[in-house]
């Protein structure tokens, strides 16, 4: 995993930033996420699955995300994406949001601030138009980012 961290550092253009895969995994445990959320509660919803404040402590918070599609008939090029299949396998490890996750993050766990939408048919890497744009045929990740920019622009941000 450390070799992967070095590879990511090289691709990021910041090859000397520290990478620690095990520390990053540890930071995502239930206990450590709870500690982080207690220390930095801005934008968090008061109830599970709800919305947090859109504006809190001088910062605007918006979130959107996806849930895995399991129907190969509408998955389009995603059927050819090995990362998609890996995320489908990982999604089965979820206990709380088994059928409502993007393979790495649960649908309601991603809610922060104003929720634009959290059920786009996207896996975690589809949201950034990876792998090579192999996404479900009913979604355009690039357009989602354009829509987000338009929302921020309409708010004067």
From TrEMBL:
Keywords: Hydrolase
A Gene Ontology molecular function term of the record: hydrolase activity
InterPro entries assigned: AB_hydrolase_fold
Gene3D superfamilies documented for this protein: alpha/beta hydrolase
Domain of life: Bacteria
Name the record gives this protein: Uncharacterized protein
């Amino acid at each position: 995993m450390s070799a992967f961290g070095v590879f990511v550092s090289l691709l990021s253009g910041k090859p000397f930033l520290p990478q620690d895969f095990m520390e990053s995994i540890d930071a995502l445990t239930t206990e450590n996420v709870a500690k982080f959320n207690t220390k930095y509660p801005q934008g968090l919803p008061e109830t599970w699955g709800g919305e947090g404040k859109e504006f809190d402590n001088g910062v605007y918070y918006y979130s959107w995300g996806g849930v895995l599609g399991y129907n190969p008939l509408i998955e389009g090029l995603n059927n050819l994406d090995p990362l998609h299949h890996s995320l489908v396998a990982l999604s089965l490890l979820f206990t709380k949001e088994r059928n409502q996750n993007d393979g790495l993050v649960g649908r309601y766990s991603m809610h922060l601030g104003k929720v634009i939408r959290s059920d786009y048919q996207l896996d975690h890497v589809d949201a950034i138009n990876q792998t090579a744009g192999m996404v479900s045929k009913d979604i355009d990740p690039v357009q989602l980012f354009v829509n987000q920019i338009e929302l921020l622009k309409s708010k004067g941000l």
